Amino acid sequence: MELPPERIIELEKLGGTTVGGDTCISDEGDAQSIWDQIPADEDISMRFESEEEIESVLDRIEDAFCSLQARQKPIVSDLITIRICELLTGRMTERFSFISESVMEMWIESGRLPTQREIAEKFGRNEASISRTIKDFIGKIRETD
């Protein structure tokens, strides 16, 4: 799923939106029910289940991340954020400490993610070392299943 940066920024702004009723104002100024915005063939319950599942996985990542040594955290933060940034909402980016602000900023501004090679260079490490670090971290997460 590749979204243009403008759409990501638009979605990010919605993260702080609260709903006080079931009516919204369209760009044309017309009042519309929010329920009219959901396609008739879509199962809305799947959205909620999917978000709950995502948050459950993110909670496990957070627990494993908190157990890392301080020197490992910035590397793992960048690498994990690269892998999951498309799933994140604004609310999630504020809630979890493992999410890399610099990676998210790059993604939102340019729609581009750094490569593993760029992350290795950023931290003065080789790609094999970075690869081992993330592999070990993912192993920790899987152990909690």
Task: Provide structural commentary.
The protein is mainly α. Helix content is 59%, strand content 4%. It has seven helices and two strands. It is globular, with a radius of gyration of 18 Å. The relative contact order is 0.13. The mean pLDDT is 78.
What labels describe this entry?
7 helices, 2 strands, mainly alpha, 145 residues, two-stranded antiparallel ribbon
Short overview:
The protein is mainly alpha-helical and 145 residues long. The chain has helices at residues 5-14, 44-66, 73-84, 90-95, 101-110, 116-122, 127-143; strands at residues 23-25, 31-33.
Q: Taking Cα atoms only, what radius of gyration do you get, to the nearest Å?
A: 18 Å
Helix content: 55-70%
The number of E-state strands comes to 2
> In terms of structural class, how would the helical and strand content be classed?
mainly alpha
Oligomer: single chain
Q: What fraction strand?
A: under 5%
- How far the N terminus sits from the C terminus, by CA atoms, comes to 26 Å
Averaging pLDDT over every residue, what do you get? Answer: 78
Indicate the topology.
Layout: H1 5-14, E1 23-25, E2 31-33, H2 44-66, H3 73-84, H4 90-95, H5 101-110, H6 116-122, H7 127-143
Antiparallel strand pairs: 1-2
Helix pairs in contact: 1-5, 2-7, 3-7, 6-7
